# Entry
Amino acid sequence: MQIAIDGPASAGKSTVAKIIAHKLNFTYIDTGAMYRASTWIARENNIDYGDERGILTAIDEEKIEFRFKNGQQKIYAGNKDITQEIRTPDISANVSQVSALAGIREKMVSLQRQMAGEMNVVMDGRDIGTTVLPNAAVKIFLVASVHSRAERRMLDFKERGIKTNQSLEEIEHDISERDYKDSHRKISPLKKAQDAIEIDTTSMSVDQVVNAILSEIKKSQKKL
# Structure
């Protein structure tokens, strides 16, 4: 079974996707982390973020993969755990440019579909329901106000121990810019699939969002 959860930056996709995957004993695939890892690889190798061929060559050399360590999913580039490093403001500011490259998207989508074809998955991203898994049994599109998403990102930085000098207003600006870039890129732009269920998480707790999605999954399972 495939469950697709899409939405803009910091709408709560990864948080609820992980919980749902755990509750259903499905595999969670964080597609955003894969694009962030690609961006990290470009930066570490001093490759321009617009150099598609250079980034692809570096990805082939270092290989992006998920590993489970102490019950938690980690993302690696080669043998280096980059789970924390890909969440820094610098990576966040440049991931849209890298993820918009046709060759990078083609490679990541191929890997994502391969994973989804081998197991029950909960996958979150920007184009899962529209491009990666268009036949997913359940498609969810999460939205939230820019202000609430900025507050969540700032809290996430604190919880991860990531230091930032950005103010809440600056984070709001970054998120608005990311929204524009993601929704206006030529290849697989951020948009709601026609058959996706939209959930506004602005005033909802994590548990409320999880329960709403689980309810939709149960409805779908009854139809199968």
